[in-house]
Design brief:
With 81 residues, the protein is an alpha+beta fold. Helix content is 41%, strand content 12%. It has one domain (4-65). It has one helix and three strands. Strand 2 and strand 3 form a beta hairpin. The longest helix has 33 residues, at 33-65. The chain is elongated and about 55 Å long.
């Protein structure tokens, strides 16, 4: 699954784009305060989604490790990873 933390966030007037270094982002554009608030909300929503998917992936791993497999008894890849 693609890392949602590497997707650009664009709200029209301003955009955040990841740079090659995983920890650096570049902001492009000029905007009013309300636009920056919208951008911050998008960032928080993207982070919440990432944390939710990580939590689901961890729960899947823990359940599988505890012996809870699918009804057919087959191996299935973790859909959250």
């Amino acid at each position: 699954m693609a890392d949602s933390r590497r997707r650009p966030i664009d709200i029209g007037r301003i955009a955040l784009r990841p740079l090659d270094d995983a920890d650096l982002w570049q902001a492009d554009g000029a905007a009013h305060w309300s636009d920056w608030v919208v951008l911050a909300q998008r960032i928080l929503a993207a982070d919440a989604l990432r944390q939710d998917l990580e939590g689901r992936g961890d729960a899947w791993d823990q359940g599988y490790a505890a012996g809870i497999a699918d009804a057919g008894g087959g191996d299935r890849a973790n859909p959250f990873r």
